[in-house]
Specification:
The protein is mainly alpha-helical and 504 residues long. The protein contains 21 helices and eleven strands. The longest helix has 19 residues. The chain is elongated, with a radius of gyration of 33 Å. Bound molecules: glutamic acid. The site of glutamic acid has 8 residues, from α6. Glutamic acid (GLU) binds next to α6.
């Protein structure tokens, strides 16, 4: 069988990372089985369309490295790939069902239906438009043929509803959840075709999956309740249904409920792949400094596991390791720390040269124009300490700017009566060297300390205080080697002058 899968988002706003994961799993599955990945835009609900959302979907897929085989931009033999461009065809299919007796016209107005819903609620029930009540309502099954035909001819607004069997066990299989049986008595007669001349999601989705020869429908768990209807529709049309796989939800970090934008806002992480620039704007992983391969790796493991300890996966590795059998049934908790951990890992794997090229951009905006070799050295000293390139500045600012203040805690703990004299001696020692290479300077300073019988910790901490201003940073000899002899001596002088004053 030729594997053909589709990712079928609705352009109603930014694409949630849960949707992004659905796209990824479809993509892995397609590539693994040498099949096709189709991108279909489901925009039949015109009232929910948001301008810019379609481009946002394209850009998000591109950023993640998902290559679409058939779609609006790519073309293909099964187009058009935007449902609003296919709208002429859907009416034919709902008419087919009406003719076969599997669907009917219904005239009930929104306010009539609202009333029925409220009446049921009063009795503590949920209103279902189905076999139990349809014969009493305004539709072509309840009304005499002459009457409903006249109402249609008069142009009265109406919808087409699916006639759900009254009491029938519907059996189907899900690749993740196994065999499922639902009795049709619990289901309602869903609208297939709306009074605005557009199909609903259910009709358009089934018709297009059939016409596009989709072999596997892989989508979010929120669509599982629609599956009995979809299976039933396939049967009514006499079409072979595709295989189905419903993916587990992405849960909040505490595991209680679905991950939402509000969780992200509250806890400071994005729930969208890239920045959403319209209306109420939203943060994106791309702009937060995530590498796309780190983002893909992190997301792939939320709901699927390889069955081994391996955590780092390239796109190729994900494609070859992925299998539907290893997709979890239970929801997957999103872990913002783990997301950062993944980026940390990918950042460590990048060459110092690549990181330097990225960091150079940030340094330029701060007015520091350096040789790439110098930035490379710098990046090599601190990269272990950061998760994102933009965090490099807070780890390296003191390489560029001599301390403006000195940490009072460190002064209190480390600045003793003998400190200025020791630092002056150290200044003299460093001044006598031609160049401050980390190894040689380090050895000389260490032997000077031991010859004099000084306390290493005391001297080195005071030294770091005058050079950095606090107790942070990489190896002190790496720092002084990078900033150079002149700057080192100046900082010692400045520290001696300023800290002396402060403590006096
Ligand atoms: N348009 C639906 C969505 O936005 C697609 C569901 C499906 O894949 O069938 O999620």
């Amino acid at each position: 069988m030729q594997v053909r899968v589709r990712f079928a988002p609705s352009p109603t706003g930014p694409l949630h990372i849960g949707g992004m994961r659905t796209a990824l799993y479809n993509y892995f599955f397609a590539r693994k089985h040498k099949g096709s990945f189709i991108l279909r835009i489901e925009d039949t609900d015109q009232s929910r369309l948001v301008p810019g959302a379609e481009e946002y979907i394209f850009e998000s897929l591109d950023w993640c490295g998902i290559e679409v085989d058939e779609g609006i931009r790519e073309g293909g033999d099964f187009g058009p790939y935007r449902q609003s461009d296919r709208k002429e065809q859907y009416g034919r299919y709902s008419d087919m069902l009406v003719e076969a007796g599997d669907a009917y016209y219904a005239f009930d107005t929104p306010s009539e239906l609202e009333q029925l819903r409220r009446d049921a609620e009063k009795k503590g029930k949920t209103f279902l438009y189905n076999a139990s009540v349809r014969n009493k309502l305004q539709n072509s099954l309840a009304l005499p043929e002459k009457v409903w035909k006249e109402r249609i001819d008069r142009g009265e607004p109406h919808v087409i509803r699916y006639k759900m069997p009254s009491d029938e066990d519907i059996h189907f299989d899900d690749m993740i959840r196994g065999h499922i049986v639902v009795n049709s008595g619990t289901l309602d007669d869903k609208i297939l075709f709306k009074s605005d001349g557009m199909p609903t999601y259910h009709l358009a989705n089934i018709v297009d999956d059939h016409l596009m020869e989709i072999s596997h429908v892989i989508r979010g768990e929120e669509w599982l309740p629609s599956l009995p209807l979809h299976v039933s529709l396939y049967r009514s049309f006499g079409w072979k249904a595709p295989e189905f796989a419903h993916l587990p939800l992405l849960l909040k970090p505490d595991g209680r409920g679905k991950l939402s934008k509000r969780d992200g806002d509250r806890m400071g992480f994005p729930v969208f792949p890239i920045f959403w620039p319209y209306g109420e704007t939203a943060k994106g992983y791309r702009e937060e400094g995530y590498y796309p391969d780190a983002f893909v790796n992190m997301l792939a493991l939320l709901g699927w596991n390889p069955g081994t300890e391996q955590e780092m996966f390239s796109m190729e590795e994900l494609i070859s390791a992925f299998s539907m059998e290893r997709v979890n049934k239970a929801g997957s908790r999103f872990d913002p720390d783990k997301a950062r951990w993944f980026n940390h890992q990918y950042l460590q794997r990048r060459s110092n040269r690549d990181l330097a090229l990225e960091y150079r951009e940030i340094l330029r905006t701060k007015g520091h124009h350096l040789d790439i070799a110098d930035i490379e050295k710098l990046v090599g000293l601190v990269k272990e300490r950061v998760n994102f390139v933009q965090e490099l500045w807070q780890e390296t600012d003191f390489f560029f700017i001599s301390p403006q203040t000195y940490d009072p805690d460190v002064i209190r703990k480390r600045w003793k009566a003998e400190t200025p004299g020791q630092l002056l001696e150290l200044r003299g020692l460093l001044d006598g060297m031609d160049e401050l290479t980390p190894d040689i300077a380090g050895q000389k300073v260490k032997s000077w300390i031991s010859e004099k019988g000084y306390n290493t910790g005391a001297v080195m901490n005071a030294f770091r205080l005058v050079i950095v201003g606090t107790s942070r940073g990489p190896g002190i000899f790496d720092i002084i080697s990078w900033i150079g002899k002149r700057e080192t001596l100046e900082r010692i002088d400045r520290g001696l002058a300023l800290i002396g004053k402060e403590t006096a």
